[in-house]
């Protein structure tokens, strides 16, 4: 029996669960294990995670995935990490204990602090250096909140006694027994990293009141950081990427103009812009796509959409119109079109390209003719139109020829949605054979770092199209739909008022 390392593992530490997948050399899935963790809601708008619980889950899913594959850890050539982005943790350097629960990316407790940091100049004050608008979404404001709020923490951070990290850093620290590292993609979501130098930006650090002593070393996404101890004893820890960046890598979107969209609870489009740092004039984020050790970073433009799959969950859990997410397709297929109805799911404002926190959801175009089938269809169309607006922004920001859209994520099981996307975008939509592109991307980056895969071409050769949808509606129908969608979006604006009561979590 051979004992050569012949597999690569990926750990995906997501918003609702942690997973481990073992892959073979063709990028095929050998085993999967997954565990959910608690969502902690201390107050309306606050969402925390217990980092110790997450670590315990990670250990369990790694053990389970190895057991299921019937593999000892010695058969792993490397492990790669991918993670929910922006979620912020501070822990004690000496004890390794978190000083506070992790503050997640959806948490809006820094609303006021963000307005204060923006001052008269507003949300784009730091954009040129870090690629991001000032928003509660990113790690920097969350870290500032912790340093200001937890008694004695700022002084301890100055003395280097406590460490900041996103979930990649936490897992690398735990896996390696004490290396304090992050990768360029995760660092690019903090607001604290300068996109051009790929180092922490001293001027921003000073404004946010963050000492360098608390920050991890920034490394490429694909590089050997160290060797694991404990559950993966002896296995090289060789990659880290934010989950959306990992999906870009897993889709082998390595050339400028390549674009992927991941359809889960929300949706995230990333467009590879090569070595160019493209500043968006149309509401997109500039971010690092990935960096391979010894090479220059590859940048990306990102369009983040807050609500897509969660609208389907709302149909199921709050309206009771369907029993499962998949049933939305059956219901939407009972009608030929949306019956004039449009849904803008601005449940907590609108992200890209609008960034309107005061917007709220609307259902518009209602007549007595509209039935639940039309509503279901409008819900799917909302995902398509939101994607279209992000792609339009990408086209406006770059001269890149955006070809087919590579899709992945839970919603891509919906074939009607895939056709609606192709019709709305007027580009082909392709779905790969391996839908787990996030884990696959982390595995690819780790395998590349240890020579398990020789180069990007070997990874490209692993990508196979499972299905493709071509645009099939006439331009006049598309244009009419677009016009109506824009009118519907405008009706969602300016909804919240100063004296609105906070909504319970
Ligand atoms: N057949 C389907 N049609 C439409 N939406 C779906 C379908 N299957 C799953 N979803 C939606 O996809 C989301 C789950 O996708 P997943 O990739 O697991 O998300 P995440 O990684 O964000 O948890 C849920 O919001 C669910 O409502
Ligand atoms: O864990 P997910 O899949 O919900 O992704 C979260 C994103 O990384 C947030 O930016």
Automatic annotation (TrEMBL):
Binding residues annotated for glycerol, in chain numbering: 85-86, 137, 243-244
Residues bound to sn-glycerol 3-phosphate: 15, 85-86, 137, 243
Domain Carbohydrate kinase FGGY N-terminal as annotated: residue spans: 9-250
GO terms of biological process kind: glycerol catabolic process; glycerol-3-phosphate metabolic process
Binding-site list for ADP: 15, 19, 265, 309, 410, 414
MF terms (GO), sorted A to Z: ATP binding; glycerol kinase activity
Regulation of protein activity: Inhibited by fructose 1,6-bisphosphate (FBP).
Alphabetical UniProt keywords: ATP-binding, Glycerol metabolism, Kinase, Nucleotide-binding, Transferase
Protein EC: 2.7.1.30
A matching Pfam family: FGGY_C
Domain Carbohydrate kinase FGGY C-terminal, residue spans: 261-449
Record's GO cellular component terms: cytosol
Known catalytic reactions: glycerol + ATP = sn-glycerol 3-phosphate + ADP + H(+)
Top-rank EC class of the record's enzyme: transferase
Positions of ATP binding: 15-17, 265, 309, 313, 410
Biochemical pathway: Polyol metabolism; glycerol degradation via glycerol kinase pathway; sn-glycerol 3-phosphate from glycerol: step 1/1
Protein's job: Key enzyme in the regulation of glycerol uptake and metabolism. Catalyzes the phosphorylation of glycerol to yield sn-glycerol 3-phosphate.
Protein family according to the UniProt entry: Belongs to the FGGY kinase family.
Descriptive protein name: Glycerol kinase
Origin species: Actinokineospora iranica
Name of the gene encoding the protein in the UniProt record: glpK
């Amino acid at each position: 029996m051979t004992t050569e390392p012949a597999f690569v593992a990926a750990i995906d530490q997501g918003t609702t669960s942690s997973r481990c997948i073992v892959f073979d050399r063709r990028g095929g899935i050998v085993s999967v294990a997954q565990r959910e963790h608690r969502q902690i809601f201390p107050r309306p708008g606050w969402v925390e995670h217990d980092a110790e619980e997450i670590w315990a889950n990670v250990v369990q899913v790694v053990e389970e995935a190895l057991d299921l594959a019937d593999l000892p850890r010695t058969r792993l050539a490397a492990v790669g990490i991918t993670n929910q982005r922006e979620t912020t943790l501070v822990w004690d350097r000496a004890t390794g204990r978190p000083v506070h629960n992790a503050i997640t990316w959806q948490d809006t407790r820094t609303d006021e602090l963000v307005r204060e940091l923006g001052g008269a100049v507003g949300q784009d004050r730091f954009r040129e250096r870090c690629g991001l608008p000032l928003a509660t979404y990113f790690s920097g404001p969350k870290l500032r909140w912790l340093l200001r709020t937890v008694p004695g923490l700022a002084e301890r951070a100055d003395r280097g006694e406590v460490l900041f990290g996103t979930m990649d850093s936490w897992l690398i620290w735990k896996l390696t027994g004490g290396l304090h590292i992050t990768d360029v993609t995760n660092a690019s979501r903090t607001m604290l990293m300068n996109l051009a130098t790929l180092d922490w930006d001293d001027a921003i650090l000073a404004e946010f009141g963050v000492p360098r002593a608390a920050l991890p070393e920034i490394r490429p996404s694909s590089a050997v950081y160290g060797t694991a101890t404990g559950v993966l004893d002896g296995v090289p820890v060789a990659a880290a990427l934010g989950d959306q960046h990992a999906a870009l890598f897993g889709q082998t979107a390595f050339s400028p103009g390549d674009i992927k969209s991941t359809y889960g609870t929300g949706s995230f489009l990333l467009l590879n812009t090569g070595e160019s740092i493209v500043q968006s004039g149309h509401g997109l984020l500039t971010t690092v796509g990935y960096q391979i050790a010894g090479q220059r970073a590859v940048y990306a433009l990102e369009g983040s959409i807050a609500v897509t799959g969660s609208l389907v969950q709302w149909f199921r859990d709050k309206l009771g119109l369907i029993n499962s997410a998949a049933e939305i397709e059956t219901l939407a297929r009972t009608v030929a079109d949306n019956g004039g109805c449009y849904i803008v799911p601005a449940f907590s404002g609108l992200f890209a390209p609008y960034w309107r926190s005061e917007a709220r959801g609307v259902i518009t175009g209602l007549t007595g003719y509209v039935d639940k089938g039309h509503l279901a269809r409008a819900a799917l169309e909302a995902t398509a139109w939101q994607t279209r607006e992000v792609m339009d922004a990408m086209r406006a920001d770059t001269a890149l020829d955006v070809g087919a859209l590579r899709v992945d994520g839970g919603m891509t099981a919906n074939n009607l949605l895939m056709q609606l996307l192709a019709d709305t975008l007027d580009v082909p939509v392709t779905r790969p054979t391996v839908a787990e592109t996030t884990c696959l991307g982390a595995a690819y980056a780790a395998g590349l770092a240890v020579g398990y895969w020789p180069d990007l071409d070997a990874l490209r050769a692993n990508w196979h199209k499972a299905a493709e949808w071509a645009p099939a509606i006439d331009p006049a129908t598309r244009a009419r739909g677009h016009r109506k969608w824009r009118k519907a979006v405008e009706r969602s604006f300016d909804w919240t008022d100063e004296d609105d009561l906070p909504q319970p979590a």
